Design the sequence.
């Protein structure tokens, strides 16, 4: 999938302060193009999740504003996958995915075909009647992804959704998200603190610095899609990860971090 050159969303001088006096974001400037897979990369506490919540309309900026050059997206046109699956514990997989459609007045019977297709796309066919306690962490997150995509949003926001999962499951879900992005054509904004994940997924990475949170540098990931396991072990991947890691180290004020990571050779094995 190729991103449009036209911006879909522009963050203009976004700032966010809390009553405690904490300045979470200051003068954030960011342009998101239609069809981008953009990662917000940075350490914990740099305001990545705060920025995502402002884009989703779940929080308001203290200063600055959002611009939607092509027209502001309605709440139902933005999907959100949280750090935790946030599933209804008493409801089946089917009913959890149905929930956004149910809130729109779509009956269970009317939604059945679309829900079946969504569950097939996230490899959960056969688990329609299961409840969350019967699912692994990765399966719960797949349900969460299916629920976010059931309304076919134009933009999907993902807030470190795979951070708590084992590496094998995380790799599989990364591949699945890219397949869905390519198939559906939505814009994706993905929050992560993993250099390796951001490079594998994204066509652009926005590296953030903390205290206060701001965009330190935007970087293009000039690698073709589809991205496969072969890309993870390629010299191109290693080199891009090295560059992004050095940039993140500078953003954190610790350039030795990038140097030490390179010296250990972690870029050649693609671990998180």
Sequence:
């Amino acid at each position: 999938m190729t991103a449009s050159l036209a911006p879909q969303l522009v963050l203009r001088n976004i700032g966010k302060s809390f009553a405690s006096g904490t300045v979470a974001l200051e003068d954030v400037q960011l342009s998101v193009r239609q069809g981008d897979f953009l990662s917000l990369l940075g350490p914990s506490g740099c305001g990545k999740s705060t920025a995502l919540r402002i884009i989703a309309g779940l929080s308001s900026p203290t200063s600055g504003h959002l611009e939607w050059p092509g027209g502001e997206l309605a709440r139902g046109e933005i999907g959100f996958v949280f750090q935790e699956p946030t599933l209804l514990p008493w409801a089946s997989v089917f009913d959890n995915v149905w929930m956004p459609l149910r809130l729109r007045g779509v009956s269970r019977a009317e939604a059945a075909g679309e829900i079946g297709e969504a569950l097939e796309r996230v490899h959960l066919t056969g688990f329609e009647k299961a409840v969350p306690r019967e699912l692994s962490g990765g399966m719960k997150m797949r349900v969460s992804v299916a629920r976010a995509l059931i309304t076919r949003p134009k933009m999907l926001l993902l807030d470190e959704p795979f951070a708590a999962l084992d590496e094998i499951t995380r790799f599989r879900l990364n591949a699945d998200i890219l397949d869905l992005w390519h198939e559906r054509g939505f814009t994706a904004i993905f929050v992560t603190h993993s250099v390796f994940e951001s490079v594998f997924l994204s066509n652009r990475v926005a590296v953030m610095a903390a205290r206060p949170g701001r965009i330190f540098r935007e970087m293009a990931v000039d690698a073709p899609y589809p991205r496969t396991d072969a890309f993870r072990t390629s010299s191109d991947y290693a080199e891009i990860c090295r560059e992004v890691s050095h940039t993140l180290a500078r953003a954190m004020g610790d350039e030795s971090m990038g140097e030490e990571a390179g010296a250990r050779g972690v870029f050649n094995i693609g671990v998180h």
User: Anything to note?
Assistant: Confidence is low (pLDDT under 50) at residues 258-272. The longest strand covers residues 7-17. The two ends are 25 Å apart (CA to CA). Strands lie at 7-17, 23-33, 37-41, 63-67, 78-81, 155-159, 187-192, 204-209, 214-220.
